[in-house]
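Sat 14:20. Reprocessing the chain from the morning session after the first attempt stalled halfway. Input below, unchanged.
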Amino acid sequence: MPGQTALGASHPHDGVIARGRGAHRTTAAETHARFFRSYGNIMFALVMHDIKNRFFGSGLGQIVMILWPFVHIVVLLLVYGFSHRPHPYGTSTLQYSAISVFPFICFNYVTRWVVISAITNRTFLQYPIIKPLDIIIARMLLEVISMTIVGALLVLVVVACGDEAMPANPMEAVCAIGATLFLAVAFGVPNAVIAFILPMWNIVIAIVIVCSYISSGILFVTSELPEQIRVPLSYNPLLQCTEWLRVAYYSDYPTTVLDKTYVLVFALVSLTLGLLMEKVLRRYF
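Finished this time. Tokens:
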């Protein structure tokens, strides 16, 4: 009959529909590509701004930040030297000090600078394209990269001094460092959200950092403490990270408090809480 197409014959509009669908897919792909390019540009701009304005108003500040952790190593060496205490484990005091202080370095710099970034970069929120989480993520990326470089430099320094840098369990050491960075990032998110609203929150974080330094196991071996002190300290996730890294390096290191699941759960809960806070409190920024 006129107006009917034969069974199995292509419909005259099929090619148009197919071309339309293909065009739609191409447009969607281009839209996603533009989004990722735009977001990448935002991240790059925020990271470069943080690098430039960290110290001295130039990129030299980032070099200072990378070298600064070595000051902590020197302080620990002086503490051990003046106390005339032998290193508890490992082949040297330098090796033991580097292993002990690195988890604290990661936690301290990532968490503290994420909070500081929320305070100093708050003016960027005047631009609708920039969200609070963008500022947090940009600083986290910068700090994680910095800590990776610091870790590599610490290994090189230990090797250059003639000490052993290879852990007894390399994969366990990688997991311990990864868990520490995850904890630092996760703990930084809710505190950065608070800092967007209350800039004075930076003082609270400074106090937390000092308490963490004292209780993170840098200056003592946890298993040698009395139980009434050891058990409360075990609830500090940073101490757990220190124990985790020591266990990875020293096969004979005794630990009665290490709970890897606790570290990961604590970090996951903190991150979830921070993301929820950012969503709920965004209108107050």
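The mean pLDDT is 83.
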